[in-house]
Amino acid sequence: MNIYDFEAEKVNGEKVSLSTYQNDVLLIVNTASKCTFTPQFDDLQKLYEQYHNQGFTILGFPCNQFGEQEPGTNEEAEAFCKMNYGVTFPIFSKIKVNGEEAHPLYQYMKEALPFHGFDENNIQSKLLKMMITENNPEWLIGNEIKWNFTKFLFDRNGTPVKRFEPHEEKDAMVPFIEKLL
């Protein structure tokens, strides 16, 4: 099994096989429009613009599981990204990333690229851990997605390469993306 065995639903309801993106370096991210990390859309769009012509694609998956920070419809989530951050990379329908109803793609990615712990040297990471410990301790267990803007990087063959946690921004990803391109 690899990433190309999965499909996702576009905002308009159309099913898309991820094999559509075969031969691209992929960054897959769960997003939300009302999150502390939402400004990362700016850097994600910059990455997309900088590297898309070299075969780099970002796939955004809105998710309302974390603090109900994506409460609107699929259309509202997509419109928010486009209007507020100029997002031109694909935004799919809202999904769940944790629990029994987690999208099969996310079930696969969490196993393929496990969680490696919180960065105790990063204040955002420490604060996130404290918040999760207090409000949703079940997310601390295993490879669950810890919050919005967890990012998964795949090479051109669909091989999982690296998981970036919500606090990890553009500068942490660039060397890995450039190496794969």
TrEMBL record:
PROSITE patterns on file: GLUTATHIONE_PEROXID_2, GLUTATHIONE_PEROXID_3, THIOREDOXIN_2
Chain ranges of the Thioredoxin domain: 1-181
Domain of life: Bacteria
GO MF assignments: peroxidase activity
Annotated keywords: Oxidoreductase, Peroxidase
Pfam families on file: GSHPx
Gene3D superfamilies with a match to the protein in the record: Glutaredoxin
Family affiliation: Belongs to the glutathione peroxidase family.
Name of this chain's protein: Glutathione peroxidase
Top-level taxonomy: Bacteria, Bacillati, Bacillota, Bacilli, Bacillales
